[in-house]
Specification:
Order of helices and strands: EEEEEEEEEEEEHHHEEHHEEEHHH
Strand content: 15-25%
Distance between the termini: 63 Å
Number of helices: 8
Largest sheet: 7 strands, mixed
Number of strands: 17
Radius of gyration: 25 Å
CATH topology of the largest domain: Leucine-rich repeat, LRR (right-handed beta-alpha superhelix)
CATH superfamily of the largest domain: Ribonuclease Inhibitor
Shape: elongated
Structural class: alpha/beta
Number of domains: 2
Length: about 325
């Protein structure tokens, strides 16, 4: 079913809307100017949300269904009381000025599925101080995630980040990245989640090892451990000419902290591998399937060094082994 263009535009007495799942298309301007519309329930089935809630000043919360892939231009423009927006996985595009002048927004979490935030998507959200991007797998360089700073790559993939929140122009790696999605927003830090692959490596560690890393993360600059155990890397933002916000990891401070986490994870992985090797060697030395107290055999230090060298961990893990 389709609700046609401007069907309820300017209905100032309208306070609540519940769309059934049978509605799959919304025309432009359906609820524009419904200044007392406070509650909206959007059900699965919609794929595109066009400019339908422009100027709905009383709207304070909205959940975007997982079936929606596009939030089009001006979708929630000037919804000045909209304080909470939940984007479901599946959303790919937030269009130009979709949330312009949503002045009650303070925090936005962008899902993994997002590929592009349009120019000025959150322009003039004058209380928006926090943006979390849950797509670290795309926005952090893979070479860095394997070898840290020793691999010669920066942590942040500026080209990919620019494609998502900037103008899409390819930048030199040594240039700061200007984002056009958050013009005139009081942001100070952009937070990016570590990739799922890195989280899974932590989850596979024994509980005491994982807790040890999580405890030490609190002491690292520009890293934040969330309640669900995810790690967010904060990249500082610098305000430049024409109210553009520039993203730049000054002195690689965020990269240094992420590098340290990588070393801790790798160290515990190697430690657990060594224990397994020692257990295997102990088992292989059993005679007639009888466990003897004098059978345990440790992996010699030279062998461990060879394993580390073969895996490329020698220089990478040295600061961790020394206790730094």
């Amino acid at each position: 079913e389709i609700i046609g263009d401007s069907a309820f535009e300017g209905c100032e007495a309208l306070q609540q809307v519940i769309l059934p799942s049978s509605v799959t298309d919304l025309g432009k301007g359906v609820f524009n100017g419904c200044i007392n519309l406070a509650t909206v329930k959007l059900n699965e089935g919609l794929q595109v949300i066009p400019a339908v809630f422009l100027g709905c000043k009383a709207l304070h919360q909205v959940v975007i269904p997982s079936s929606v892939t596009i939030l089009d231009t001006y979708a929630f423009n000037r919804c000045s009381n909209l304080a909470n927006v939940h984007f479901s996985e599946g959303l790919k595009l937030i269009g130009e000025r979709a949330f312009k002048e949503c002045t009650a927004l303070r925090s936005v979490t962008v899902p993994l599925s997002i590929t592009k935030l349009g120019h000025g998507a959150f322009t003039d959200c004058t209380n928006l101080t926090e943006v979390i991007l849950l797509c670290g797998g795309r926005l952090l360089n893979q070479g860095f995630l394997y070898r840290g700073l020793l691999g010669g790559e920066k942590a942040l993939n500026k080209e990919k980040l620019n494609e998502m929140i900037g103008h899409g122009i390819v930048l030199n790696d040594d240039c700061p990245l200007a984002t056009s999605a958050f013009l005139r927003c009081p942001l100070t830090t952009l937070k990016i989640s570590i990739p799922r692959s890195l989280s899974e490596r932590m989850e596979r560690l024994p509980g005491e090892c994982r807790l040890s890393i999580e405890k030490r993360v609190h002491d690292l600059r520009r890293l934040e451990l969330t309640q669900d155990g995810n790690i967010l890397a904060g990249f500082p933002l610098i305000r430049g000419p024409f109210n553009f916000i520039f993203v730049d990891d000054t002195n690689d401070e965020t990269a240094e902290s992420l590098h340290q986490v990588l070393r801790w994870i790798s160290f515990h992985e190697l430690k657990e591998s060594s224990i397994l090797i020692e257990l295997a060697m102990w088992k292989s030395s059993l005679v007639e399937e009888r466990a003897r107290a004098d059978c345990p055999t440790s992996v010699p230090d030279p062998a461990k060094s060879l394993i580390m060298d073969y895996c490329g961990f020698t220089g990478f893990l040295e600061p961790v082994i020394e206790g730094n």
